[in-house]
Amino acid sequence: MSHSPRPTQELLCINAEKVYDWVVLQNTIRQFVSAEELEIDHELDNVKHLTTHFILTDERGKPLGPNAEVKVKEIDKREEKTFVIDGALVTLEKVSFVKVFFIVIEFRGIHDHTHFVFKSCPIRVEAHESLFLCAPEGTRLVVRITDLDGTAKLNFHDDRLKSVDLTLTTCQSIQAVADVTIEVKADFCQPRDILTEQCQAPVVPPQCPVIFPGHDN
User: Fold this and answer.
1) CA geometry: angle at 107 spanning 125 and 51, to 5°?
2) pTM of the model
3) Which of the residues 17, 44, 70, 193 could staple to 101 if both were Cys, CB 3.0 to 4.6 A apart?
4) For the residues of 33-44, what is the DSSP string, one character each?
5) pLDDT truncated to tens, each residue of the chain (217 aa)?
6) Domain boundary assignment for the chain
7) How many Cα atoms are found within 13 Å in the side-chain-facing hemisphere of 104?
8) Residue 26: CB partners within 8 Å, gap ≥ 6?
9) Beta carbons within 8 Å of 132's beta carbon, 6+ residues apart
């Protein structure tokens, strides 16, 4: 049975995420954390040059990569509101949600002339937010944290750490998306060549042609 050659280009239907709206914004979160929540088994009161660093992790404390998606839960029904933008009427939805993520605090300093490094257990952080998006019924929110920074105020009592006041600043990407099927005309991909190690040709030592074999007169 013969088959006609497959064309290099073809009209394809592809499942994809359509982005209805996309904003990038900054948010500041303040949270009180007790020493028990940190599960600190080291004394910090005698540590010199103490610094803190925040690491975005999952609930088990595994660091997350750049632009990590975090869990969100909408807490209110979306409400429509009309805006005038560049002279045109635009209907947007007020979207209210709770953003949940985890951080680990890394403490660094010097204790008894020795560099000191300690990481807390994962700390659950919740932030309530609301904003206006083009988010019609059928869309969902996708929130990614693109940057995380902040400060930690350590509270001591009788030379023992009792609590930490956190001030976290997050930069986040917020999108309203929905699954769609799109039609595109595209080339078919071909597999790449397999990489193999090649043996080099033997290297010939340099000669001294001036003195040997010499020049013909």
Assistant:
1) 105
2) 0.75
3) 70
4) EEHHHHT--S--
5) 555 555 577 899 999 999 999 999 999 999 999 888 887 655 665 666 778 889 999 999 999 988 999 999 999 899 999 999 888 999 999 999 999 999 999 887 776 666 777 888 999 999 999 999 999 999 999 999 999 999 988 887 776 778 889 999 999 999 999 999 999 998 888 787 776 677 777 777 888 887 777 766 5
6) 9-181
7) 19
8) 169, 170, 171, 172
9) 81, 83, 92, 93, 94, 95
Per-residue b/e over 109-139, b at no fewer than 16 CB within 10 Å?
Answer: bebeeeebebbbebbebebebeebbebeeeb
Pick the closest to residue 99 from 30, 150, 33, 172 (CA basis). 172
**Residue 11: CA atoms inside 13 Å, Cβ hemisphere, count?**
1
What residue type is 127 in one-letter code?
A
Cα 114 to Cα 94, 120, 158: the distances in Å are: 53, 19, 24
CA distances from 143 to 18, 97, 157, 175 (A): 15, 10, 38, 7
Interior/surface letters 42-60, b for 16+ CB within 10 angstroms, e for the rest: eebeebeebebebbbbeee
